[in-house]
Amino acid sequence: MNDQNELKNMGLKATFPRLKILDIFRRSDLDGQRHLSAEDVYRLLIAEEVDIGLATVYRVLTQFEQAGILVRSQFDGGKAVFELNDGDHHDHLICTNCGVVEEFTDSDIEARQHQVAKDHGFVLESHTMLLYGICPKCSEAGKQAKPTLRS
Question: Is 83 annotated to bind ligand?
Fold first, then answer.
């Protein structure tokens, strides 16, 4: 299915800004840069000399999130990032030095989270797991972790 049809099926008109922003996410996903902030998208548009304003970027990202095309996450610092919704649940490892984000899935962790919810009488609707630490590249470079709060 092409992007124009996908947008129409989601109830969105296939406008130039929407098509261009969706294209940026598709290309970034292929390049391994899966998580983009509104500012990242805007910078990529500027680099391509595409005249789409930051307010339009925010509006389109919100529309895409509401339509289920993108998923929003908020990592350390509260900055929202978006990624294409591929329909598969995954969790994230975030480097506190360089900010690299690694995705992972673990069936044992998923099962345990569902069991914890059940043990507490909850019907789990959704969840997010974010693990913060130092990536291998930063560890090899000898960078130290930022101090963390102990519970």
Answer: no
29 is in an annotated binding site: no
pTM: 0.74
138 has binding-site annotation: yes
Any known ligand binding at 95? Answer: yes
89 is in an annotated binding site: yes
Q: Would you say 20 and 50 are in contact if contact means Cβ atoms under 8 Å apart?
A: yes
Between CA 94 and CA 131, with CA 126 as vertex, the angle to 5 degrees is 15
Mean pLDDT over the full length of the chain? 87
Residue by residue, DSSP assigns 84-149 as E--S---EEEEETTT--EEEE--HHHHHHHHHHHHHTT--------EEEE--HHHHHTTPPPPP--
The whole-angstrom separation of Cα 97 and Cα 147 is 11
Question: Is residue 120 marked as binding?
Answer: no
Q: What is the pLDDT of residues 10-30, one digit of tens each?
A: 888 999 999 999 999 999 877
